[in-house]
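<context>
A single protein, sequence plus fold
<entry> Chain with its tokenised backbone below
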Amino acid sequence: MSNQIRLSIEDSVRFIKQQVTTLKLGNFETVEELRQALLESGCTLNREINEVIDKLAADSDFTLTSGTDKLDIHMSTSAQLGYSGKCPLFELFAAIRDIGGVGLSVEAGLQHVLQSPRQFMGYEQLIYQLPIPQFVDGYPTVFRVEDHYGERYLNCYLVGAEYVCRGDEVLVFGFRPNEGC
């Protein structure tokens, strides 16, 4: 752990588990349809996001959720995870895992952006992702949703040890089904 102050987080964990947004999965047959829906929602996709979508579209092993499914996601600040101020993002990911949290699939991350287009304007969201197979570096991946002067941007980053969270971002993640949230 860095020199950050770890706060008592029992109450925060209970609070985080109560902050649930339910995503609907299975709305799209192809990755290209999902990309088009994001663009039509007014979200600007950076080069890395477009590359991820291109690679997924070309990957015959990658499939979107078939049928209709729902997924509960949770949101937290770094303070609610027990950190104050700046800290390495990989430490926040470890704190998320310590409380039973998990990274979202690529589809769930993109669906979150699509299904909450204006709810989160005004601050950055970091969507904790499962590693994207096309990026073989082994680093966790984060989708970053940013608001710049009323326009939403979606970026994709591999998170190395040098990536520092400012402390005012909102982290988005899931919980393991057996964690009872």
Q: What stands out?
A: The CA atoms of residues 1 and 91 lie 7 Å apart. The longest strand covers residues 69-77. The radius of gyration is 16 Å. Helices lie at 10-18, 31-40, 47-58, 89-98, 106-115.
